[in-house]
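As a warm-up, study this chain.
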Amino acid sequence: MRRTVLTCGDLGGPCPRCDGAISLHVAETVEGDRLLWIVTSRCVDCGHVDEMRDRPGVFDFDSIVRQTLIDRVGLTRLRADPAANRGLRLRALAVFRKRGATVAETADACAALTGDGLAGTPAEMAILAGQLAAEGIQVTLQP
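Now compare it with the structure written out below.
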């Protein structure tokens, strides 16, 4: 799944080769169970192209990229029906703990999952949906 979610010119600086204007193209993608952001810059004057490809936490402008993605495509909501998933709470708790959540965050995430839902970028929620489904938890994604 590769999903292009943003094309803009306002996140970049000047071209490193000619000082011309740079156009940025940001894609959010899921490879396996890993979220990747692919940021491609192209100089509109000389055509120089650079691509940065890695997971969040690597780029200096993570919060800007993520917020711009959300502004552009909105949030996706992930929900689990409590009745359909009765008896699977421990499995859900384990998924959140494996993702690095604290005990309190894990309990809050499980409550949100069976309540109003959890919200994130489409790729973030697709990864979490896959991890929960692998544990037998039935979830739905809603834009």
